[in-house]
Specification:
Layout lengths: L2 H21 L10 H34 L1
Length: about 70
């Protein structure tokens, strides 16, 4: 899977999970998914940052190899 497709899937997943977590708040047994939603957002930010850095490093390696 390319990085572009991963961003699209993560964006759509965030929108769907965000809507689900906002509207599924249950007052009777205290089920609240907003905390899980924040964890999900944090995971996406970490995933995106890691793979962007990894992709840039890979591009630099390929450029350096082809220069020589």
């Amino acid at each position: 899977m390319s990085l572009k497709k991963a961003f699209i899937y993560n964006f759509v997943g965030t929108i769907l999970f965000g809507i689900l977590s906002i509207y599924s708040e249950n007052k009777e047994n205290g089920l609240n998914l907003l905390g899980m939603f924040l964890v999900f957002i944090t995971w996406i930010i970490l995933f995106s940052t890691y793979y962007i850095v990894k992709l840039e490093s890979f591009k630099n390696q390929i450029i350096n190899w082809t220069k020589e």
